[in-house]
Amino acid sequence: MFYNSSLLSPSPREDPMGGSFLEESSGEGGDSNILGGDSLVTGPLGAVLLVMCLTGMVGNIYTVAVASGRVAGCSAGSLGVYMMNLALADLLYLSTIPFVVCTYFAHDWFFGDVGCRLLLSLDLLTMHASIFLLTAMSLERYWAVAKPLWARRASNAYRKLASAVLWLLSLLLTAPMMVMTQLREGDSPHKRICIPTWTPSAFRLYLTVLFSTSVLAPGTVLAIVYTRLAWAYRSSAWGLGLPVAGRAPARRLLSRISAIVVAYWVCFLPFWAWQLARLYQGEGLGISPAAQAYLNFGVTCLAYGNSCVNPFLYTLLASSYRG
């Protein structure tokens, strides 16, 4: 993951997060054996992440192929454009796994200063792109119910432009991490680590802003959208006197879009809770270094797992929507 993982060390001027995996595994301090090469955690974690990478890559490549074909054939409506962009975001996110696994096992960073900046930024970029695209897809679904005439006039060109703007916004939020991260040499040639160069207080502020832009703000918008959607579906179905069977397709589509959103929260909320807890509490957590390592591994796997589950959810979503 982009912060407390094998890829990034806290600023040497202060250690607000209690150290990174790389620092703990490089042989410093009395806890170096916790995450050493013979650890019972490192091997299984690497294996799990590589399986996730392979599974997720195959699923998302399939999704991109299917969605791009539907967009070209104009048979997927709004979903094709958004599904293709969501799958591309998942592919970019999964592409960081081999670098993470290599760093876990080697206890060193081999990919240079550019690698530090790009790989850490990819995590942030894809995280924001995914939730922004999910929010856009949910908003369009709401407009299809609340303003059907406007929704029918919206073209795929408009959706492509909206997706491009959302990617650009994600990139702008990512830019500070790209600019302010550098590769530093440690106490020995085998301790190269990626370090944020700003002050700890500025870094806390930045991560808090990212939490707001990737969780709080989209979460608020989505909560409003889905509340209004549920009410709109219910009101329109009852107002038209539709039987339960007649309401099923709309309800099924709504439930499958919401399943993708829920999967995002389930996979990323533990990650953010863990990052913010360590960011603001530090040593006050009262958790042993070993327990912290296990928690970090757990939230890392959970976050990557989102990109593995998504292709199945996209397939279900596409099967419930035509036009």
TrEMBL record:
Annotated localization: Cell membrane
Membrane topology: Multi-pass membrane protein
InterPro entries xrefs: GPCR_Rhodpsn, GPCR_Rhodpsn_7TM
TM region(s), chain numbering: 45-67, 79-106, 118-140, 161-183, 203-226, 253-274, 294-317
Pfam families (alphabetical): 7tm_1 (PF00001)
Entry keywords, A to Z: Cell membrane, G-protein coupled receptor, Membrane, Receptor, Transducer, Transmembrane, Transmembrane helix
GO CC terms of this entry: plasma membrane
Keyword Isomerase belongs to the record: no
Domain G-protein coupled receptors family 1 profile: 59-314
Lineage: superkingdom: Eukaryota
Stored SUPFAM superfamilies: Family A G protein-coupled receptor-like
Biological processes annotated in GO: neuropeptide signaling pathway
Gene Ontology MF term list: urotensin II receptor activity
Region (Disordered) residue spans: 1-29
Keyword presence, Metal-binding: no
Family statement: Belongs to the G-protein coupled receptor 1 family.
The name this protein goes by in its record: G-protein coupled receptors family 1 profile domain-containing protein
Organism name: Catharus ustulatus (Russet-backed thrush)
